[in-house]
From TrEMBL:
Stretches the record annotates as Disordered: 107-126, 401-440
The protein's name in its UniProt record: TAF domain-containing protein
GO cellular component: SAGA complex; SLIK (SAGA-like) complex; transcription factor TFIID complex
Compositional bias (Basic and acidic residues): 430-440
CDD domains: TAF6C (cd08050)
Residue stretches of biased makeup (Polar residues): 107-125
Pfam families, alphabetized: TAF6_C
Keyword field: Nucleus, Transcription, Transcription regulation
Species this protein is from: Puccinia triticina (isolate 1-1 / race 1 (BBBD)) (Brown leaf rust fungus)
Length: 440
């Protein structure tokens, strides 16, 4: 520095001096900022020092202490959920992502700019965000699931029910099945085979253990209830068995989804039962709506059979009488509907008796069928006629006993609670008298 007649000391000056003395140079990172030195004279000659700001110690002592730094801690947040980045403060915003050079370069390479193409057509649709392989898989698996080839259909359904890599396709598959169900039933002459295939696609998706379906529950349940409660099925002896199969499949799916999500959504079960009850007793409901409600109640178990079917049996019977008097329903279909209802209630009563026997409760006796006038006042004309004319007396008594016990459940529970309260009161009174006698 002295030989160069400079006032700034550089890193190279130190390195050159060390090399001249045959000393190992200093290892490290060189700084691009130069240090500014001031020169002063002294008895030994020129002296150089760094020009630094003078610090007043009085001000330093009078200044407030800085806040104590927080301890080192770790937090976790969701980087992505089901392939979608959640909008939380820890993740970058969409505006920041678009301004990132990597994102803008990827977008420009994916969408070539054209002055002739309008800007609306350059926007990506939701499905185009999928990879080419997933889009090809979607087209082929949906075509195979709806084809007439049984082997191709089975292979497609097996893939939908077991493939672990379908989480990005789940919303599109559910939407596809829902649209096919709605489109088929809106046709004047719906194809039952096509409806069954669409429902089987939905069934396969719901049975896949690797898929997270809770965000799409609002799309799944309407499709299931549509297949269960629809009145748009064609009326012919050929399609009756297929209609029954579709309704039973939908009821089974409804039961599985209800058992799966009723703890996460406490009101879900109540809302489903209200929907079934409305289809059962609504005067505008047809016999097909009521058949779907009965099948759904049967699959949901004993308690829904009590709350929906038995406790609304009078309103149900009156709606059947009204439909028959107005000519909206066929007598044969109504007879089959009543027969199915009585069978479900007799089976429910048998199940209830088995449950009572398991819990060491006394088995109750079957009730006798009352007179026809009294029976018509309780269950309606059509149900009363069926109960009076059936050849299976045991099934009839089982169903009638189940109806009476279900309608009197609340009164029985109240009476049992009153008995328990009176027993507890007597025990407390006896205990008090014993204590008084001991003191005397």
């Amino acid at each position: 520095m002295r030989h160069s007649k400079r006032t700034n000391l550089l890193v190279e000056d130190v390195d050159y001096a060390l090399r001249a003395k045959n000393i190992e140079p200093l290892w490290g990172f060189a700084s691009t900022d130069t240090l500014s030195f001031r020169r002063t004279t002294s008895a030994v000659g020129n002296l150089y020092f760094i020009d630094e700001e003078e610090i007043d110690l009085t001000k330093v002592l009078a200044a407030e202490l800085p806040p104590v730094p927080q301890e080192t801690s770790y937090t976790a947040h969701w980087l992505a959920v089901e392939g979608v980045q959640p909008a939380i403060p820890q993740n970058p915003t969409p505006a920041e992502l678009k301004s990132h050079p990597a994102f803008s370069g990827l977008q420009s390479s994916a969408i070539p700019s054209s002055s002739k193409q309008p800007p609306e057509s350059q926007n990506l649709t939701t499905k185009e965000h999928l990879s080419r392989e997933l889009r090809l898989y979607f087209d082929r698996v949906t075509a195979a699931a709806l084809s007439n080839d049984q082997s191709s259909r089975n292979a497609a359904l097996a893939s939908l029910s077991g493939d672990p890599g379908l989480h990005q396709l789940v919303p599109y598959l559910i939407q596809f099945a829902a649209e096919k169900i709605t489109t088929t039933l809106s046709h004047p002459e719906p194809s039952m085979q096509y409806l069954r295939d669409a429902l089987q696609i939905l069934e396969s998706i719901l049975s896949n253990p690797h898929s997270y379906l809770e965000p799409y529950l609002h799309q799944i349940l309407p499709s299931i209830l549509t297949c269960l409660l629809s009145s748009s099925f064609p009326s012919s002896p050929v399609t009756d068995d297929l209609e029954r199969e579709i309704r039973c499949t939908a009821a089974s799916l409804l039961k599985s989804q209800l058992n799966r999500y009723q703890h996460s959504y406490p009101t879900l079960r109540t809302r489903i039962l209200k929907t079934l009850t409305k289809s059962l007793i609504d005067p505008q409901s047809t016999d097909r709506n009521q058949l779907g409600a009965i099948v759904g109640v049967k699959y949901l178990g004993l308690e829904p059979t009590k709350t929906v079917l038995s406790q609304n049996i009078k309103a149900f019977g009156e709606s059947l009488d009204l439909s028959l008097s107005e000519g909206k329903a066929d007598q044969i279909r109504l007879d089959n509907l009543i027969k199915e209802t009585l069978k479900i209630m007799s089976e429910a009563y048998s199940e209830q008796q088995i449950h009572r026997k398991t819990n060491s409760k006394s088995k109750k006796k079957l009730r006798s069928i009352p007179a026809q006038d009294e029976l018509e006042a309780e269950v309606g004309v059509q149900f009363a006629a069926r109960l009076m004319s059936t050849s299976d007396e045991e099934e009839t008594r089982l169903a009638y006993t189940f109806i009476k016990e279900s309608t009197q459940t609340s009164d029985t529970d109240d009476s049992e609670e009153d008995e328990e309260r009176s027993e507890h009161a007597e025990e407390e009174e006896t205990t008090k008298m014993d204590v008084v006698e001991e003191k005397q």
